[in-house]
């Protein structure tokens, strides 16, 4: 059984057009469907503006879809879920965003940032056990000296490690990784990719990995969905898509991003 199922997900935005300002709808995600089996990684690939991040935000419940459904472990995420159910579901799937600095509150210390998920999710009386913040930092390769410091005191790679530690705090089953290394140097990004692979093996995590880089997706993913202009143009296993692409657009993506050096990955 799939952990995450996305079925015919669509997102339209209203806009004005012409001299009279007539209302029109622009479709940014058009009937996207895929599923992810527990413990595996699905790579969602496409150029900038293809709708990848919009899909991620709808899955996480950050924006409502125009139509379609999202199910997590057999439970409807969007339609028919109570507030309590949504809060529980959000503990079980967490995001890691592209910009590690923008994702962290500059006025909070690392200790406060990591404690925030527990503070939020205790409001529903669920009794979420607090993980040891030192242990959480150790899992992502940082030591306890980071706890009293602020985000601006860290490098980009260290900030992304803090983001990942926060995402892991509630022990989720699914991480939605939205271009998690695109804002980092190649060598630092390779370290984060290795960390993500290690964490997946250690905690049996499931990943939705969003990227425009086919080599990164090939390194981490077991399956690939290729998006263009809001639509799925090709889907299959990592081997099928990378070795035998069926669409010219997929071939162009493969040719546009050179292979990473073996030493880096």
Write the layout of secondary structure elements.
Layout: E1 2-17, E2 22-37, E3 41-45, H1 52-59, E4 67-72, E5 75-76, H2 83-92, E6 93-96, H3 110-121, H4 133-139, H5 156-168, E7 174-178, H6 186-203, E8 206-211, H7 214-220, E9 223-228, E10 231-237, H8 238-243, H9 248-256
Parallel strand pairs: 3-8, 3-9, 6-7, 7-8
Antiparallel strand pairs: 1-2, 1-4, 4-5, 9-10
**Helical segment tally?**
9
Order of helices and strands: EEEHEEHEHHHEHEHEEHH
Strand arrangement, major sheet: 6-7-8-3-9-10
Total beta-strand segments:
10
User: What value does the average pLDDT take?
Assistant: 88
- Shape descriptor reads globular
- Taken as a percent bin, the fraction of beta residues is 25-35%
Determine the structural class based on helices, strands and strand pairing: alpha/beta
Main β-sheet description: 6 strands, mixed
Radius of gyration (Å): 19 Å
Distance between the termini: 31 Å
Low-confidence stretches: none
Helix content: 25-40%
């Amino acid at each position: 059984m799939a952990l995450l199922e996305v079925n015919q997900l669509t997102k339209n935005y209203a806009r004005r057009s012409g001299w009279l300002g007539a209302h029109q709808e622009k479709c940014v995600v058009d009937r996207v469907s895929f599923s992810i089996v527990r413990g595996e990684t699905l790579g969602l690939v496409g150029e900038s503006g293809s709708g990848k991040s919009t899909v991620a935000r709808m899955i996480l419940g950050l924006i409502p879809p125009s139509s379609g459904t999202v199910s997590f472990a057999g439970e409807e995420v969007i339609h028919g879920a109570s507030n309590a159910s949504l809060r529980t579901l959000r503990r079980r799937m967490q995001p890691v965003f592209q910009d590690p600095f923008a994702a962290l509150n500059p006025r909070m210390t690392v200790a406060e940032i990591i404690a925030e998920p527990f503070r939020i999710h205790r409001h529903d009386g669920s009794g979420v056990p607090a993980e040891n913040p030192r242990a959480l930092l150790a899992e992502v390769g940082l030591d306890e000296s980071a706890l009293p410091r602020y985000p601006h005191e860290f490098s980009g790679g260290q900030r992304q490690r803090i983001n990942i530690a926060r995402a892991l705090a509630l022990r989720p089953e699914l991480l939605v990784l939205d271009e998690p290394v695109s804002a980092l140097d190649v060598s630092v990004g390779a370290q984060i990719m290795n960390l993500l692979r290690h964490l997946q093996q250690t905690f049996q995590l499931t990943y939705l990995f969003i990227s425009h880089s086919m080599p990164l997706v090939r390194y981490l993913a077991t399956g690939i969905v290729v998006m263009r202009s809001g639509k799925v143009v090709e889907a299959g296993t990592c081997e099928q898509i990378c070795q035998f692409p069926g669409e010219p657009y997929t071939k162009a993506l493969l040719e546009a991003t050179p292979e990473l050096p073996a030493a880096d990955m």
